[in-house]
Amino acid sequence: xxxxxxxxxxxxxxxxxxxxxxxxxxxxxxxxxxxxxxxxxxxxxxxxxxxxxxxxxxxxxxxxxxxxxxxxxxxxxxxxxxxxxxxxxxxxxxxxxxxxxxxxxxxxxxxxxxxxxxxxxxxxxxxxxxxxxxxxxxxxxxxxxxxxxxxxxxxxxxxxxxxxxxxxxxxxxxxxxxxxxxxxxxxxxxxxxxxxxxxxxxxxxxxxxxxxxxxxxxxx
Length: 220
Hints:
41% helix
């Protein structure tokens, strides 16, 4: 078995060893945990958790700050994102975010107002039967795909977010068509690769190796 895994991982690529601090404990939770906590305030809740761990003398390297660290929150209340990141950094803790690859045409247009709708780097949806709205993803095969990702993440990276859950990426509709010509059916595994590679490039540009990404979708 060890020889098989050695050959297989040589073929597919081996995991990148993350920074040493990544192996220390993390605090955190999903958005619901922060919204529904006893303080009923996302940032106060996250700060209270960090304070409690400090009082208990339990060192932590990171806090998964979904809620304050999510796109829907940072667009309307960026000052709170800066607040929790700065608070965590003072305690030697890295703040992490959350994101999925869903991107509507309207959202993409807000991030890239000078790009025509036809040239926006999101996958196109071929005609399909039924009323269900199929999701569209950032198209990392498009030359402007990384530009869209950088625009989406500018506020969070400027605030100092040091890592993120790279969530979803596993619901590519078969009807989807990507810039490089592949269909959603062909991209069932391929998208996970392009998605992870895009985030790796984004965070490496800002932090070099000093960051952490934890991914949901995966394929060789």
